[in-house]
Structures are given as C-alpha cells and as structure tokens.
Amino acid sequence: ASDKPLYDRLGGMRQINDIVSKTIDRTSSDPRTKRSFEGIKLAAVKESVAQHLCELSGGPCKYEGASMAKAHAGLAITSEEFDIMDAYLAEELSAHGVADADKAELQKLLGPMKPDVVGK
Ligand code: HEM
C-alpha cells in the first residue's frame, strides 16, 4: 500500500541492491554509455548509489558520498547517456515487480537531479 515508505515499496535493501547492480552492469557495458565507467570500481559505485537511493526513498540509510554535481564532475555525461541509464533503471524496476505508481514516484525524485549529473 502507498502508506508505506517508497523504500519498502521498492522491496527494501535487498531489491535496491539488485536493481542498482543490474542497472549499473547494463549501463557500464552498453557501448553508448560505457566510456564514463572506464577505470571506475563498479562495486564501490553500486554500494554508493544503493545507499543514495535508500536514503532518497525514505529508507534507514545515510548517504555519505559526494553531491551529485561533484560525483559526476569531469564526466561530461550527455542528456542521451542519462536517458539510457534511466531507461535501464525503469526496466529493472519493472523486472523486480515495482508497480508503475511507485516507479513514477522514484522518477519524480530522480528527474530533478538531471541538471546536476549532465554536462559536469
Ligand atoms: C539521477 C541519475 C543519477 C544518480 C542519482 C547517480 C548517482 C550516483 C552516485 C550516488 C554516485 C556515487 C558518488 C560517490 O560515491 O561519492 C555516482 C557515481 C557515478 N556515476 Fe552516477 N548517478 C546518476 C546518473 C549517472 C549517469 C547517467 C552516468 C553515466 C552514464 C553515471 C555515471 C557515474 C559514474 C561513472 C560514477 C563514478 C564516479 C567516480 O567514482 O569518479 N551516473 N552516481
């Protein structure tokens, strides 16, 4: 039910970890988006992104990484690259049984971060 925190409706930490891991695996191996991940320790990024999503969705986490602008500084991520990752995330959310309304709620939290991620 939607009275539960989004964190719970996403399936808690177990599911968030899996959704993030698969989204990052797909983004970092797609020829259209892999360049940003060259030389990056994927396990560390996955851990950090999962903590960030946990906190953002009202879960019991404290994200202690960099701001979104700082985390993506120097990567010059394009709007197209952002949208590709976003589409992988949407597919993984569905594949993990997250309802459309809950996907939309997460999208509302992530969408406004686009200007902090793109073109830095
Ligand atoms: C709303 C969208 C996004 C969010 C919320 C997000 C979130 C994050 C977070 C939390 C970190 C870890 C920062 C830290 O540990 O200090 C990170 C790092 C990173 N992100 Fe994103 N990200 C987004 C989009 C993207 C996109 C579209 C790409 C590339 C296609 C990308 C590539 C990376 C890379 C390569 C790193 C590692 C940077 C490094 O370690 O130097 N991110 N992101």
From TrEMBL:
Protein name stated in the entry: Hemoglobin
Record-linked InterPro entries: Globin-like_sf, Globin/Proto, Hemoglobin_trunc
Keyword set, alphabetical order: Heme, Iron, Metal-binding, Signal, Transport
Gene3D superfamilies in alphabetical order: Globins (1.10.490.10)
A Pfam family of this chain: Bac_globin
CDD domains: TrHb1_N
Top-level taxon: Bacteria
